[in-house]
Amino acid sequence: MESLTNRKKVVSDKPMTLWEKIYLPAIISGMITTMRHMFRKRKTIKYPEEIREFAPVYRGQHVLKRDEQGRENCTACGLCAVACPAEAITMTSAERARGEEHLYREEKYAATYEINMLRCIFCGLCEEACPKEAVFLTDRLVPTYFERDNFTYGKDKLVEAIDQRIDITKRQHTGKRTQL
Amino acid sequence: MDTALLIEKSILVILLFLVSLGAAAYMTYFERKLAAWIQDRVGPDRAGPFGILQPIADGVKMFLKEDFIPAKADKWLFIIGPGIAMFTALITSAVIPWGPKLHLFGRDIVLQVADINIGILYVFGVISIGVYGIMIGGWASNNKYSLYGAIRASSQMISYELAMGVSAITIVLLSGSLSLTTIVEGQSDVWNIVYQPVAFLIFFICALAELNRAPFDLPECESELVGGYHTEYSSMKLGLYLFAEYTSMFVSSAIMAILFFGGYNFPGMSHFSGNTLAILGIAAFATKIFIFIFVIMWIRWTIPRFRFDQLMHLGWKSLLPLSLINLLVTGLVIAYKNGWF
């Protein structure tokens, strides 16, 4: 096979030369290397004083987005649940009743929508599968609990509050997709 | 006996004891810092400014740990082991001349606890007792890993002591004396390293092996023997073993400085006299010791460990013949200079 990198090396078992057998030149060159590292900039982040920045594309706790008018984007199509490799997402759908147009954007909506955070592997495939720009992963962390039940997040925890929108601009383009 | 002399020596002994222990404690701190720097890390920096109080915190931790003695261990030997290790590490410093004479309170104070005329023999004798600390500890633990570590330590020490001794003999030939003071004073113009680079190299490598330092730290190599000879040790007994290792490192750095790098001599020495000279001499000696300690640590964090057969091969088949040839050549040159041919 043709090698893909230039790191391939032919291994040989030829006996060491006298220069190599003395060891000292190799030891000294090794010591020069470590000496160089001694003056290099430290990469340590001193945690309590200094908190490491999350990557802009960090995949943390999910959010179910609302549109500009505060209506839930999710139509309970179930594509996220199908895409989920960990089978963490469950939902039941319901039909929008008359007078609920200000709550749900389309005629069908998720009556319940649950993500089991213990099953979730935070891969982001749900977000990729979603045709309605409804589910996104954010840079928030899922906290720890003592009871397993607490890890099953329902709509009360997942849907963003109207007055406290979750910013996902860093992660993805917001709102509607540009029309093709 | 002269009372003033007794007081003087007592103060010197106590001072030396404290300095050796303090140096050993701060060497642990320095070693951790150096390891961190070499590995692009920061190292201990929580206890006090820059982590200065870390050794004290470590010491307190050691004392507060449970002092455990295994049920099947030989209780008395188990206790004596770390004691011997620490004792031998400390008493080696008795014959080291730490600096030129000080003049205080109208007295000449010799900065050496005991100027015995066989200083170098004393040092070698004490160092070879040091291996008993490790051997007894490893044997008394009644643990396979400990025993293996102890066996390795003793065979390694015996193998390397030979080459070390032979290379020290070349220095003795050169200075014509076994007294460390005479050896140091003989180097006031030219340091022995100039005449004996090969002997120094052999001595240095053997010193690393005697100290059980990397790349010869087989008696306690974690990846094979858990903790080696101190696997079963805990609390301050373990602390004593570790402390003894650092103390011996301090002392053997001092001995290498004396034998090869002129001890407290420094260039431009003739321009000073009296107490100034003494203080500068002590400072020069301390600097040399520090450089040696630094290099030993630097090597530890650079080179991987030898395999045991490689270690034996190096000791018996390379270093010993090399040191013997070196001794022979030195002897011949000295004989030629004295006009024996």
Task: Please provide a written account of the structure.
The complex is a heterodimer of chains A (180) and B (341). With 180 residues, chain A is α+β, with helices and mostly antiparallel strands. The longest helix of chain A has 15 residues, at 24-38. Chain A has helices spanning 18-21, 24-38, 79-83, 125-129, 155-158, and strands at 62-64, 89-95, 108-116, 135-137, 152-153. Chain A starts with 17 loop residues before the first helix and ends in a 22-residue tail after the last helix. Helix content of chain A is 18%, strand content 13%. Chain A has 5 helices and 5 strands, in the order ααβαββαββα. Chain B has one domain (70-337). Chain B has 341 residues and is an all-alpha fold. Helix content of chain B is 67%, strand content 2%. The mean pLDDT of chain B is 84. The radius of gyration of chain B is 21 Å and the shape is globular. At the A-B interface, helix 2 of A face helix 1 of B.
Beta strands of chain A, count? 5
Query: What sequence of helices (H) and strands (E) makes up the elements of chain B?
Result: HHHEEHHHHHHHHH
Q: What's the assembly state of these chains?
A: heterodimer
Enumerate how many helices of chain B there are, as a single number. Answer: 12
Order of helices and strands of chain A: HHEHEEHEEH
- The CA-CA distance between the termini of chain A, in Å, is 43 Å
The number of distinct structural domains of chain B comes to 1
User: Are there runs of chain B of 5+ residues with pLDDT below 50, and where?
Assistant: none
Give the radius of gyration of chain A.
Answer: 27 Å
Question: Percent of residues of chain A in beta strands?
Answer: 5-15%
Roughly how many Å is the radius of gyration of chain B? Answer: 21 Å
- Measure the end-to-end span of chain B: 49 Å
Provide the spatial order of strands within the biggest beta sheet of chain A.
Answer: 2-3-5
Strand content of chain B: under 5%
Arithmetic mean pLDDT of chain B:
84
The biggest beta sheet of chain B is recorded as: 2 strands, antiparallel
CATH class annotation of the domain at 62-158 in chain A: Alpha Beta
What value does the average pLDDT of chain A take?
85
